[in-house]
Structures are given as structure tokens and as C-alpha cells.
Amino acid sequence: SLISPKFWGTHPQMSALFTNISRICKRRLLHSTKTFSSIARLDHRSVISIKGDGSANLLQGLITNDVNLLTKDNSCIYSHFLNVKGRIMYDSIIYYENDNSFLLEVEKEGAFQFLKMMNVYNFRVKADIKLTSFKVFTSLEKSQSDYTSFKDPRHADLGWRYIDVFPPSYALIEPDEYHQKRISLGIGEGFRDISYGKDFPFEHNLDYLNGVSFSKGCYIGQELTARAHHVGETRKRVVPIKVGQSQKLEGISLPAKVLSGKKTAGKILSVYGDRGLAILRFQYLGKVLHVQGTGATIEGYAPSWWPQPPS
User: Is the pTM of this model over 0.90?
Assistant: First the structure.
């Protein structure tokens, strides 16, 4: 038979021909295999729309960053909203649509409270402020298509944000990889990581994350923030932590106090498996610390991207 391996095996030239054809087919199959980019939906984030002639001025008086930095070419900034005591009320990424129209990404759980706060300050401006149904997506890759993407303004390793739409070629995945990357960088986000109304902006590395302007005009909470900056010393910051080997912290009441002997070293803010975030004093970084009320230990470390030495 012509299709018998024994037949072709007795014809060296034909055997070599089919070997070459097989190699070519394998190479073409390898190069034609399409790889899909992945994208994750961040269900813990909501989007607020602010439109109107006074929208920029309204934001400028409330955010730690400078709204004038927003342009078509620099289309998003990171910022905090503070209370009069200089403590964090909300963390936000602000997206530029035009000079009188902005989108604010905020924590979903606090979106209605955020809306109420904005309307309190809106009594003179009369901007159009509303909660949208837009979804927030994140990907480590920038789309090469016409779909609008926003480079995460906090850190380059956090990739790109998409608001409500993304390229159909992207495969939708769970946000686990995004959170793992964020936690490894020591970057808090939302209620789970930030104690709203209690934590200070520099404790959450706002100055390291391009989230504060020291040259703009007044905003709520500016006095204490400026004072902390000019003093030039922050004694504790949010850092990534690793839980002791074979230990678990899931289910503990947070924030949880962390001790070095009998001294308070800081507090755990959130736990993701054997990793997490904590606000720790600098002198305790790299040391084994005990979690109060448990037999567990943690160790915090300064992320490699921090300026050296940290301050």
C-alpha cells in the first residue's frame, strides 16, 4: 500500500521529503497560534460622572492632586479626598473627558456616600454629578486598537485601565493577578486596604504614587498634608507583608495590631492568603513581628520601587 509506513520507509528521498513537510507544518502551527491578552473587571470600583462649567474648580478644591494636570495627553491622575483633619475619606483615579467633564473611579461600597459628599460642595457650582453604570477593567497590556485605555497613574506595573469597554479579543479573567501585583507593590485600594476617616495620605504612600500636588492652591485637608510634607518625616507607611510559614490570618478582625515584644509596631490592614498590607514603623521592617491575640507572625518589607532611603 502507498500509505503504508513500510512503503515510505523503503524510499529514503520520500521519507526525507515528508520529514521536512512535517517540520514546516509544525513551525507554521506554532507561529499561527493566537495568544489572547487578558483583562479583569474590578467589581469593587464604581464610576462617578462630573460635568459642567465649574467641574474642574469643584474638583480642584477637594482633591490632593492638581486637576490642571489633566489633558488629552495626560488623561488620568491619582488622588485622595480628605476630611478637614487631613485623613483619607476616599481614594480615586480621575479620568479626563474634556475640560468640563471628568470620570471619577471610587470604591463601590462608598459610592453613594461619595455622591452625597460631592453634592454638599456642589451647591454653588451646580455641576451635573451622577453615579454611572460604567464598569472598571484592568489589563497589564495596552490595547493596540481604537479602544481607549488609561495608564495606571500610580505605578507602571499596574498596567492599564479601561472604562466600560475593552477590545473583544481580550479574555476576561478574575482580578486575582491584579490584586497580587498591587499587594506586592504595597499599594492599597478601597475599603479593604484603607481605613477611611482614620489613615493619613502619606501613610498610604500618596506622595510616592504621584497623588499629591504641593504647588496647587487650597483644598480640604491641605494644611495638615502640607505640614507633614514640609516637616519631611513620615515614620510609618503601608508596606507589603508576608505571613509566617504555615500560618494563616484569614478571618481575623482587621485592622489588627502588630507587636514587637510589648511595643506596637503598626497594624495589619488587609490579608490576601499569605500576603497582605500593613502600616508599619520603619524600624520594624524586615523583622519578625507578632499579631496581637494570635500565634501568627508577619514580616514587612519596603518595596523595591520606593525612593531610598524612604522618608
Answer: no
